[in-house]
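Hey, I'm writing a tutorial for new members on how sequence and structure tokens pair up, and I'd like a real worked example in the thread rather than a made-up one. If someone can provide the structure for the chain below, I'll link this post from the tutorial.
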Amino acid sequence: MIIGRSPLRISIGGGGTDLPSYYLEHGGFCVSAAIDKYVYVSMHRTTAKEMLLRYSQIERVARAEDVKHPIIREALLLTGVTEPNIEITSMADIPAGTGLGSSGSFTTCLVRVLQQHKRHFIQPRELAEMACHIELDRLKDPIGKQDQYIAAFGGVTVFDFNKDGSVSARPLAASEDVLAQLEDNLLLFSTGYYRTAGSILKEQDDKSRQKDPGMIANLHYVKELGLRILEHIEKGNLSKFGELMHEHWLHKKKRSSSMSNPDIDKWYQVALDNGALGGKVIGAGGGGFLLFYTEQIGRLRRAMRAAGVPEVAFKFDFEGTKIVV
């Protein structure tokens, strides 16, 4: 049996500029952090003359071409794993639709497991590119490349999405003390709302392709904010980072009327009133998780608990997608 795991992620700054519809024209940038919440994929040979696939549903098929799950089907065909006598099972620490990049993590994990099955070694960059090829090129999903890259690389990583389609990556240049403080002072809370990112990202993608002035200006500003966030974190000025998170959220909400809702706005204000310097909804928006930076950890935790918003504790993951068995 082969078991792989791939980390979920939180976006630190610049998120949204990793879509090809934007960065191929203007160049994109983001800082992202892998966290110790994972997607798992297991695979083993069976004696049955069929493929058995277990995820939120169960499929039994004779051929890879007949698989209904689009990512599994395309990953099997891309890697050439088409023999029928295999079983693939996936599970996750956090449900899909929560803005933590679960689709990208699942794709990287699945490809890594399939490559292990074929005894092929694969570098993180190649793994990320294969996952992006499946989701963006083969399936035409209106998404970016941040999720696949941070899942493959792990760590707290700086990505430049270049106009020629390439992606540059480097670790965040911050001391261990700053990283520890950043990890401790970032708190993650579940809104209880689940959604697919596709509709919100499609709106952004369509407007970027149409060169909508408002959307392009918004993404320009978010990219500039991301660069300022990087500068302040690497200098150890985390309080300023928290303030810039708030500024980022105000601009992010302008991208779509579906970005927030009355409950999210209410909980966000509770957090600001109880020690959060800034925060945002993680991912495309519309639900999922709220991330806050605070230097009054106990006060914020108590306030959010009283508001009925549960916390999900996390640490950074520095291993990326890997085979665990």
